[in-house]
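Retro notes (design track)

What went well: tokenization of the new backbones is finally stable.
What didn't: we kept losing track of which sequence belonged to which structure.
Fix going forward: every design gets posted as structure first, then sequence, in one message. First example under the new rule, 351 residues:
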């Protein structure tokens, strides 16, 4: 089995000198110390990650990872599996929410297709064909993937991070598209956090209360079959998804290339949880864009000791909840780089 370097090689450290310089700069800008709250912390953290006195997130790369889920055979989504492939075409044609946000932000957008049941037309612009299999195994009955399939998906994610680095990205966003993936993500989160599916299962694209109970029962069957293995690789292979594994590889690959990552909602956060379990240092490279309305997200964020920047009741995926938070990071950089100091502006400092 081939695994990308980022799965095992220690991640780079952030630059403590630049971080300290940025902290000092924040303390002399013309405002009461700390008055820009989290925006100050973002500028300081970005300075350390980007090893610069002038942090910037002008160049943003968004990679949406798509894959289908065999567990859809259990009736766990409000939408048909065909939507995954149809949405890939919609991303390419510019009509999806993340397509609009990418244009709005001036970000580059690519879609990585790990395998769909529906047919994806050839030659769609911005779509990378990285097909591994048409869909995962039905995780309620069998492992979702083999470990070598997980390795291939991690590598496809790492390649997306490589393309982001080659494009000079200052910030990386991963998005997900895969009907049924809230079931796989919930199974993974329950496994890694030792939680009961009744506590974490939610409506996803719009199940009613009965549908959510059925989904939790399907996840319980999967966890019973899977047993106690909480290793990141074991959990991904047994309970994950092609796109979830690729997202884990992409996040690790971006951090490995010193590109900070803005995490989206529930699905991407679960992929981040898997990746952090594999490489705990990854946490230093992550921002969390928003808290999804999907009920399991809060527990996953708590396990990652992270505070989301926004809470807008969004529950879409695709990277959309990260994309809407980009202007906050840009504001943090503009303030940090552009404000005058007390000395420069002739404003009296604290007495
Ligand atoms: C039109 C459409 C666009 C989407 N974009 C993201 N998702 C999101 O919803 C799906 C997960 O929910 P579940 O587990 O309930 O199937 C994933 O495809 C996710 O990316 C979408 C879903 C739909 C229907
Ligand atoms: O928060 C998410 O990532 C999410 C929630 C519901 C459906 N798809 C994705």
């Amino acid at each position: 089995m081939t695994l990308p370097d980022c799965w095992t090689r220690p991640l780079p450290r952030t630059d403590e000198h630049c971080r300290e310089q940025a902290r000092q700069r924040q303390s002399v800008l013309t405002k009461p110390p700390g008055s820009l709250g989290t925006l100050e912390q973002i500028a300081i953290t970005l300075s350390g990650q980007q090893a610069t006195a002038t942090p910037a997130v002008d160049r943003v790369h968004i990679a949406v990872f798509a894959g289908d889920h065999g567990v859809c055979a259990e009736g766990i989504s409000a939408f048909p599996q065909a939507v995954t492939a149809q949405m890939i075409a919609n991303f390419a044609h510019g009509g999806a929410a993340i397509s609009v946000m990418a244009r709005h932000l001036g970000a580059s957008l690519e879609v990585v297709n790990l395998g769909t049941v529906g047919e994806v037309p050839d030659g769609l612009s911005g779509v990378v064909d990285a097909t591994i299999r048409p869909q995962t195994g039905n995780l309620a009955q069998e492992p979702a993937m083999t470990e070598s399939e997980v390795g291939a998906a991690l590598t496809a994610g790492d390649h997306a991070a490589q393309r982001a680095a080659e494009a000079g990205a200052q910030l990386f966003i991963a998005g997900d598209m895969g009907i049924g993936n809230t079931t796989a993500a919930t199974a993974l989160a329950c496994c890694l956090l030792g939680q009961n599916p009744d506590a974490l299962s939610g409506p996803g694209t719009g199940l009613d209360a009965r549908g959510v109970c059925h989904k939790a029962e399907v996840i319980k069957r999967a966890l019973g079959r899977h047993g106690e293995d909480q290793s990141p690789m074991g959990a991904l292979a047994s309970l994950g998804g092609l796109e979830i594994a690729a997202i884990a590889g992409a996040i690790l690959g971006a951090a490995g290339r010193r590109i900070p990552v803005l995490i989206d909602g529930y699905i991407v956060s679960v992929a981040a949880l898997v990746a952090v379990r594999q490489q705990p240092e990854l946490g230093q490279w992550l921002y969390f864009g928003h808290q999804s309305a999907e009920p399991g997200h809060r527990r996953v964020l708590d396990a990652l000791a992270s505070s989301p920047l926004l809470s807008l009741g969004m529950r879409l995926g695709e990277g959309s909840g990260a994309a809407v938070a980009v202007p906050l990071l840009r504001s943090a950089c503009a303030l940090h780089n552009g404000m005058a100091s007390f000395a420069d502006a002739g404003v009296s400092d604290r007495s």
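Added context from the reviewer: The first helix runs from residue 16 to 28.
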